[in-house]
């Protein structure tokens, strides 16, 4: 049986457009955003971990292992990826590490399988797989491998980078263009208005 990839949910953002409130804990139709995301990944990843800027008891009841950023202060999603890869560096990630943000409640059920299929090639040095939606790269929805750790470390510590896109484009990668759907499978909740929109879409989907 093929082993599952590891998964990491990024929850280390500043949530500035949400007034500094932890986005992962914001309620969407009665459940925290983090629950919506973790429930869509739990069956397809092992382990599923939560990256946050610092460890906090606020997330204890979700049952996810927390991996704090390895350097203090807000440093962007690249630090979250680096911290997760470092945490799992002693594990044999034969199918890599799936990256997802905590504020995307409509993640497709087949995201993991599609990204795995995109790099189903012989050899150890598999490329990064990343989603593109309507022609726009979505770097926080991506699949990375153990052997990327050194390059991620150099980008985040050596070069002081925080975003994923620059590093991604400098590495061998496969782009998966996702079919258009409503709501967008990669809808991010960044503002109170977007949280309201997500609630409307969720109501329609459950009607």
* Domain unit count: 1
Q: Could you give the order of strands across the largest sheet?
A: 5-4-1-6-8-7-9
For the record, the CATH architecture stands as: Alpha-Beta Complex
Mean pLDDT: 90
Strand content: 15-25%
What form results from the Cα inertia axes? Answer: globular
Distance between the termini: 37 Å
Instruction: Provide the helix percentage.
Output: 25-40%
Please write the string of helix (H) and strand (E) elements: EEEHEEHEHEEHHEH
Largest sheet: 7 strands, mixed
User: Which class in CATH terms?
Assistant: Alpha Beta
> Which regions are unreliable across 5 or more consecutive residues at pLDDT < 50?
none
Number of strands: 9
* CATH homologous superfamily classification: Spore Coat Polysaccharide Biosynthesis Protein SpsA, Chain A
SS-based class: alpha/beta
Specify Rg, calculated over alpha carbons: 16 Å
The number of helical elements comes to 6
**Which fold name is given in CATH as the topology?**
Spore Coat Polysaccharide Biosynthesis Protein SpsA, Chain A
């Amino acid at each position: 049986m093929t082993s599952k990839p590891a998964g990491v949910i990024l929850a280390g953002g500043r949530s500035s457009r949400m007034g500094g409130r932890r986005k992962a804990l914001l309620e969407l139709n009665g459940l925290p955003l983090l629950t919506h995301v973790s429930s869509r990944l739990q069956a397809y990843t092992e382990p599923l971990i939560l990256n946050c800027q610092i460890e906090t008891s606020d997330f204890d009841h979700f049952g996810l292992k927390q991996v704090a950023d390895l350097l203090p202060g807000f440093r962007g999603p690249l630090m979250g990826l680096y911290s997760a890869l470092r945490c799992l560096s002693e594990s044999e990630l034969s199918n890599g590490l799936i990256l997802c943000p905590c504020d995307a409640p409509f993640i497709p059920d087949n995201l993991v399988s599609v990204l795995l299929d995109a790099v189903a090639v012989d050899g150890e040095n598999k490329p990064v797989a990343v989603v593109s939606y309507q022609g726009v790269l979505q770097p926080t929805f991506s699949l990375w491998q153990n052997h990327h750790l050194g390059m991620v470390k150099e980008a985040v510590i050596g070069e002081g980078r925080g975003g994923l896109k620059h590093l991604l484009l400098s590495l061998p990668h496969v782009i998966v263009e996702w079919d258009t759907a409503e709501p967008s499978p990669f809808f991010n909740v960044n503002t109170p208005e977007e949280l309201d929109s997500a609630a409307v879409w969720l109501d329609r989907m459950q009607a």
